[in-house]
Amino acid sequence: MEERELGLWTPLIGFDVTKEDRGAKEYLDNIGMKVNSIGLFVYNADIINYHEEGMPTEKKFPADYCNYYGSPWNDLRMRQDWTNYDLRILSTELKKHGVETYMSVMGNHLSPERDDDFTPQIGMFGYPVKQDFVMEHRELALESTKERGYIHLLKRFKDGTSFGDYFIKKALACISDYNMTGLHLADAIFPHSIQVQHGDFSDDLFGRFVEHTHIQPPQELMYSLRDERSPGVGARAAYVWGQHREEYLNFLADEWELFFTKLCKTFHEHGKKVMVNNAWTMAPFESFYRFAVDYKALERAGVDKICVEDQATILYLSEPGSRYKINELMAAPYFIRAYAPKIKTLAINYAKDSSEEGSVINHCPMANEREIYMLTSPLYISEKGVERATEGFYVCLADSVSKEEWSWLKKRYEIAYREKEKRTLSATLVFSDRMVRNFLPEYIATRRYSAHKIVSDLSSFGGKMGAVVRTENLEYAKGLLFVPNIDLLSDEELEKIKNYPDGVIYTSVCSKKPLFEKEDIYFEDPFEGKKEYRMCVGGFHLKKFDRAEIESILEKAEAPAYTFGASDSVSDCEYWMNDLVYRPVSEGIMKACARLLFLASQDVISTEAGNLVTLYELENGMIRLVSENDMMNHYKTFKVYVNGKKIKKIVNGNDFPVLPLKLVMPGDLVRSNVGQEEQLKAAIGFVIKLPPGGCSFVDLELE
C-alpha cells in the first residue's frame, strides 16, 4: 500500500487529562494506524494573544480551549479541565510517538456592535466563550456591512503598530513553549468568514488601501466611521466593490502574502511549520474572488501544508434544500495542488463533530466512502512523475471517533491506496496560473464560467478528469487533454497545446477563441446571442468517436432556465455557501462536451452517457473503473461493455455487492458470474451496482 499522510484535527477532549501522558498512547492505540500529525484544536486564538513566554506559571484553561466552542461533552467523555502545563505534556508525549503537533486555532466572534458593550459572550452553538483580546482591542475587529466581528490579522493597534507582527512573535513563543511542530490557522481567523465584498472597510484597512492605490474616493468616505458625518461602512463597501473591486482584491491578497511571508520566515528559522485551511471549500479562483486568498501567494510565502475543506456531504446534510456540491468539492483539492504544488495538499475527511452535531460516518457512510475514494484517485503529473494529487487526509474531527469507526475508516483508506495508479485513461485537466488572477477582469466583465466551474459541471454529466497537469509540464502528460478557458493561456502556453501530439478538447468564448489549423469538432451555445459571452467547445487530434451521438445531444439542447444582461447589473452572492454567480450556459452544451470527453479519451469500455466513470491504468497492468452514484436515496445499476476484448479477471474492491459482479453476455443478457473462466471470457461486459450516494472500485484484467 502506498504511503500517505494521516493528520487529525482533535480538540483536547479527545485525550484523557487524568493519565500520566495525558492520554496520548491510549488515543493513538485506539486509531490503529500510523498518525503523522495532529492539530491540537484549542480553538481560541487568545491562547496565543495572551501567551506568557516561558510559561512561568500553570494556568487553567477556559472551557473553549478544552473543547471546541466549549461544548460540555462528546461521544466518549465529559469535557475535562486542562492547564497549559497539561497541554505541553500532551504535545511532548505525542512527539515521542513520532507525531507532529500543531497549535490549531480559529477566529472568535465579537457579538456586541457597540464599543461600550461588555456583556458576556455566547458562542455560535450556545456555549459561553472567552474572547477577551478582541473585546479589549475593538480596533482589531473586522468591520463589515454584515457585522462587526472576527479579529483581523491584517489590522493595526490603536497606536499604529501591526497586530500581525505582534501575533507572529506571540505565536512562535507559544508553539515553542508548548513543544509543538507548528501553527494551524483555520476558519474565521484565516480565512475570514465574511466575504471581501462585505468588509473589512474599517478606517485602518480602507485608509491603507486608498494610500496604496492613490485613488481619490468621495470626501465623505474618508471621514472616520466614528464621525457622525460618515455615511457608514456600507457606503465604503459599495464604492470599493463597485468601482475598485480588482484593485481591492489584489491589495488584500498582497497584504496576506506579506503577513504569511513574515510568519513562515520566522517559523522556518526556528524549525517550525505553518499549516492553513483553504478558504471555505473554495477552489483557486473562487477563493481569490470571495476572500482575497491566493494559494499561489501562500506558496510563495512558504506555507507548508494546506487542508482542503472538501466536506460536500456534511454541508449538504446540514442545509435543507441545498444543492449537493460533490463534484465541485471533489475537484477543489487537485485544482489547489496544480496551482500551488509546493504546498503539501491534505484533503479533509469529515467523519463527525459532536459540537456541530454532525456525523457522516454514522448517518451517511456510503457518501463518506465516496469522498475518500474520489479525493484519493485524481493524479498530479509533473517532472517528478505521476503521483496522487492529494498527499493524505486530515480527519475532522478526530476527538470522538470510536475504535470501530477507526477500523471502518482504515479499511477504506487501505482500499483507496491498495494499488498504485500508473496513469489516467480519462481526460487530463490542463491548469495555468492565468486561470486565477488573469481571469478576474474576465469574470467581472462577463460572469463567464471559471475553469473550476466548467470542470465541476462536466464531471456531474460524466466528463471526468483523472489527472491534472500544469502547462509547463505538458511533455510528461499522455492521452487526452482538456483545457478550460483556453483563451486565457499565454502565447507560449498555447503553442505547447497546439504541438501536443495527442487529442485536445477545449472551451473558450467565441470572441476570444484561438485559431487552430484543423479541428475535428466544434460547437457553440446557440442560446447566447453575444460572442463575448457565448461558450464554445472544440477539439483536435482526436481519436475516432461517435459524432452522431454528440450531434444528437446538441439537437436536444434547451435554453437555460434564466439569463441576465450586463454583468454590472448582477449582484454577487451574499454568503460562501451560496453558489458563485455565473452567466448560464445551456445544459445540453455541457452534456455534449462531457460525452465527448468520455468518448475521445479511451476505447477500453463503453457505457451510457451520464454514468460517472473515471478510468486509470494501474501499475499491476489492470484497468481501474472508479464509478459514482450521485443519487443519495437510491441504488444505481448500469452496464459497462468491454470494447472487443476478453475479460480475464474482475476484482470488486468494495464490500458491496457481496456477490461477484454480474456479467453481460452476448445478446445483452445479464447472468450471474458463477466463476467459470470460459463464461468470463465470453462476457461482453458486466454490471456495476452502487449504494446510495456511493462509489466503487472495479479492477479489470483484459486479454
| Gyration radius from CA atoms, angstroms | 26 Å
How many β-strand runs? 30
Q: What characteristic shape results from the CA principal axes? A: globular
Count of helical segments? 22
Write a structural description.
The chain has 703 residues and is of the alpha/beta class. The chain is 31% helix and 21% strand. It contains 22 helices and 30 strands. The strands form six sheets. The protein has an eight-stranded parallel β-barrel, surrounded by five helices. The model has no long low-confidence stretch (mean pLDDT 95).
Gist?
By secondary structure, the chain is of the alpha/beta class.
Keywords:
8-stranded parallel β-barrel; alpha/beta; 8-stranded mixed sheet; globular; 703 residues
Indicate the topology:
Elements: E1 5-11, H1 24-31, E2 37-44, H2 46-49, H3 63-66, H4 84-96, E3 100-106, H5 132-136, E4 141-143, E5 148-151, H6 163-177, E6 182-185, H7 203-213, H8 233-243, H9 245-269, E7 273-277, H10 284-291, H11 295-301, E8 305-308, H12 312-318, H13 326-339, E9 344-350, E10 352-353, E11 358-359, H14 360-363, H15 365-376, E12 379-382, E13 385-388, E14 392-396, H16 403-417, E15 421-424, E16 427-431, H17 440-446, H18 451-460, E17 465-470, E18 481-483, H19 491-498, E19 504-509, E20 521-524, E21 535-540, H20 547-555, H21 587-601, E22 605-606, E23 612-618, E24 623-628, E25 636-642, E26 647-652, E27 663-665, E28 669-671, H22 677-682, E29 685-690, E30 695-702
Parallel strand pairs: 1-2, 1-14, 2-3, 3-6, 6-7, 7-8, 8-9, 9-14, 12-17, 16-17, 16-18, 18-19
Antiparallel strand pairs: 4-5, 10-11, 12-13, 15-23, 19-21, 20-21, 22-25, 23-24, 24-30, 25-29, 26-30, 27-28, 27-29
Helix pairs in contact: 6-9, 9-11, 13-18, 15-16, 18-21, 20-21
